[in-house]
C-alpha cells in the first residue's frame, strides 16, 4: 500500500510538470501582452527574453509528451530469428506482460525495453526490446533469459500499474531536463525551477522504482534461475568493462589511420576467451566494481541486488540453460557482427575494414611514428645519440624510452620491425636477427654514452 501511495503521488507530480510549464507560459505571455499595451519599447525588450523561454517550454512539452525515437541497431524479425523471438515471447508470458513488437540487436553490453509513449508516458503505443550483441558473446542462455526477464519485468502486470507509469515518467523527465540543458541561452532561468521539481519527483518515485527493480530481479530469477540471475548481474558489469578495454585498445588501434576491424564480434569473443586474462576476469566477477550512485538513483547497488536474490528461495536453472546464448540465434557470428557494425557511427562505418594482424601492425606503426615525430621535432636521431648531456631528460629510464620509440619508428620505416596482435595485452614488437638479441643491449649502451653498437644496427637497416 505504501508503494502504491507513493506511485500515485509520483503520477500526480508527473501530471504537474506540464501544468507548471503552462503556468510559466501563461505568465510570460500575460506579462508580454501587458508590457506591449503599456510601453512598446518595454514590450520589445521583454520579448527578447520571453519569446525564447516560451519556445523552449513549448518544445519541452512535446518532448515530455512523447518518447521513443528511431532506434539504431539490427532489427530481427520472427522469421529471421525464430528461437530468439519464441524465447522472448515465452518470457513475457511468464512475467505477465505483453511481448515487444520489435527486437533490435545493438552494440552494447546491456539490454532494455523501450516504449513509444504519449500523454506524459501514461499511454504506451509500440514496445521495442534491445539486446546487446556483447551479451551473446559472454553469457549462457539462462543468464540471458534472466536479463531479458528483468527488462520485461519492469512492465509486468504483477506490479502496480502506477509503478509502470512511474518508470516511464522518470524516462520522460530525464529527456526533458536534457533538452532544457541544450536549449537557448534563456533556458538557464528555467533550469532551477524544473530541476527542483524533478528532484522532488525523483525523490518520491525513487522508492517505487527501487522496489520495481527488485521485483524485476525476482522475475529474472523465476525465468532464469536464482544462480543465473545473480551471476548475470556480475557478468554484465564484467562485459561492460571488457568492452571498454576492447574499444579503446583494439577497435580504435588504427582508427586515426582510417581503418576498423573487419571482425568486431569475433575479436571481442577472442578477448573474452584469452586464458591470460582469465584470473583478472574471475576477480571482477567475485567483486564487481560499485559505480557511484545518487540518492535519486532508481537502481539499488549491485551488491544489494545480489544479496536480495540469494536470500530468497532458490529457483533452479531451467533445463538447457547452460547452453551458450549464441545458440538462440541463427548464424550467430554473422548476425552479431552485423549488429555491432550497425552500432558504429557514420565515421566508423566509413573506415576501411582490415583483418586483425594488418590492423594492429598499421595502428602501432602510426602510433610509434607519431610519438617519434613528437620526440624529435626539429632534431634528428643523431641529436639523441650525441651524448647524455644534450638530452632534455636526465633520468635514464625516460631517456631510454624516448630513444627506443625513435629507433622502433626507424626500423618500422625500414620494413624490419612489425607488431603482432596479442589478446593478452599490448601488441608485441617483433624483430628479426640480429635486432631481436642485440637491440636492447645497444639501447642500454647508447644511454650511457656508447652509441656505436646502436649506430651499427641502424646502418645495417639502412638508416
Topology (elements, then pairings):
Blueprint (H helix, E strand, L loop, with lengths): L1 H37 L1 H26 L8 E3 L5 H14 L6 E5 L4 E8 L4 E10 H6 L2 H13 L7 H21 L9 H34 L1 H26 L7 E3 L2 H10 L4 H9 L15 H10 L20 H11 L3 H5 L1 E3 L1 H21 L4 H4 L11 H18 L4 E3 L7 E3 L4 H13 L4 H9 L3
Parallel strand pairs: 2-4, 5-6
Antiparallel strand pairs: 1-2, 3-4, 7-8
Strand content: 5-15%
Radius of gyration: 29 Å
Helix content: 55-70%
The parts where pLDDT drops under 50 for at least 5 residues are: none
Shape category: globular
Major β-sheet, in short?
Answer: 4 strands, mixed
- C-alpha end-to-end distance: 81 Å
Number of helices, where a helix is a run of at least 4 consecutive DSSP H or I residues:
18
Order of helices and strands: HHEHEEEHHHHHEHHHHHEHHHEEHH
Total beta strand runs: 8
**Strands across the major sheet, in which order?**
1-2-4-3
Mean pLDDT: 83
Q: Which structural class should the secondary elements be placed in?
A: alpha/beta
Q: How many distinct folded domains?
A: 2
Amino acid at each position: 500500500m505504501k508503494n502504491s501511495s507513493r506511485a500515485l503521488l509520483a503520477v500526480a507530480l508527473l501530471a504537474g510538470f506540464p501544468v507548471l510549464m503552462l503556468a510559466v507560459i501563461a505568465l510570460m505571455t500575460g506579462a508580454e501582452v501587458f508590457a506591449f499595451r503599456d510601453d512598446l519599447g518595454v514590450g520589445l525588450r521583454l520579448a527578447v527574453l520571453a519569446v525564447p523561454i516560451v519556445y523552449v517550454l513549448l518544445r519541452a512539452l512535446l518532448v515530455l509528451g512523447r518518447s521513443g525515437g528511431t532506434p539504431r541497431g539490427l532489427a530481427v524479425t520472427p522469421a529471421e530469428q525464430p528461437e530468439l523471438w519464441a524465447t522472448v515471447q515465452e518470457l513475457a508470458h511468464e512475467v505477465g506482460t505483453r511481448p515487444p513488437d520489435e527486437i533490435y540487436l545493438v552494440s552494447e553490453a546491456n539490454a532494455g525495453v523501450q516504449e513509444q509513449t504519449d500523454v506524459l508516458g501514461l499511454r504506451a503505443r509500440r514496445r521495442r526490446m534491445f539486446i546487446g550483441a556483447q551479451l551473446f558473446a559472454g553469457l549462457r542462455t539462462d543468464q540471458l533469459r534472466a536479463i531479458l526477464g528483468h527488462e520485461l519485468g519492469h512492465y509486468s502486470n504483477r506490479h502496480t500499474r502506477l509503478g509502470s507509469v512511474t518508470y516511464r515518467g522518470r524516462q520522460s523527465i530525464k529527456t526533458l531536463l536534457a533538452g532544457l540543458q541544450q536549449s537557448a541561452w534563456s533556458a538557464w532561468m528555467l533550469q532551477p525551477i524544473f530541476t527542483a521539481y524533478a528532484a522532488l519527483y525523483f525523490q518520491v518515485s525513487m522508492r517505487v522504482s527501487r522496489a520495481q527493480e527488485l521485483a524485476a530481479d525476482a522475475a529474472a530469477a523465476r525465468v532464469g534461475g536464482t544462480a543465473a540471475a545473480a551471476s548475470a548481474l556480475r557478468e554484465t558489469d564484467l562485459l561492460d568493462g571488457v568492452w571498454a578495454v576492447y574499444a579503446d585498445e583494439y577497435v580504435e588501434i588504427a582508427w586515426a589511420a582510417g581503418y576498423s576491424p573487419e571482425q568486431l564480434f569475433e575479436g571481442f569473443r577472442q578477448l573474452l576467451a584469452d586464458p591470460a586474462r582469465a584470473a583478472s576476469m574471475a576477480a571482477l566477477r567475485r567483486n564487481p566494481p560499485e559505480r557511484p550512485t545518487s540518492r535519486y538513483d532508481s537502481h539499488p547497488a549491485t551488491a544489494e541486488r545480489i544479496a536480495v536474490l540469494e536470500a530468497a528461495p532458490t529457483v533452479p536453472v531451467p533445463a538447457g540453460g547452460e547452453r551458450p546464448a549464441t545458440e538462440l540465434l541463427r548464424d550467430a557470428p554473422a548476425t552479431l557482427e552485423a549488429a555491432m557494425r550497425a552500432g558504429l557511427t557514420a565515421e566508423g562505418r566509413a573506415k576501411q575494414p582490415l583483418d586483425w594482424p594488418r590492423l594492429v601492425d598499421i595502428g602501432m606503426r602510426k602510433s610509434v611514428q607519431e610519438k617519434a615525430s613528437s620526440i624529435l621535432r626539429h632534431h634528428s636521431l643523431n641529436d639523441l645519440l650525441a651524448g647524455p648531456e644534450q638530452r632534455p631528460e636526465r633520468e635514464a629510464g625516460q631517456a631510454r624510452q624516448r630513444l627506443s620509440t625513435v629507433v622502433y619508428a626507424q626500423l618500422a620505416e625500414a620494413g624490419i620491425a612489425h607488431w603482432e596482435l596479442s589478446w593478452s595485452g599490448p601488441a608485441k614488437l617483433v624483430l628479426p636477427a640480429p635486432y631481436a638479441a642485440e637491440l636492447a643491449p645497444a639501447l642500454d649502451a647508447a644511454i650511457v654514452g656508447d652509441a656505436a653498437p646502436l649506430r651499427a644496427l641502424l646502418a645495417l637497416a639502412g638508416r
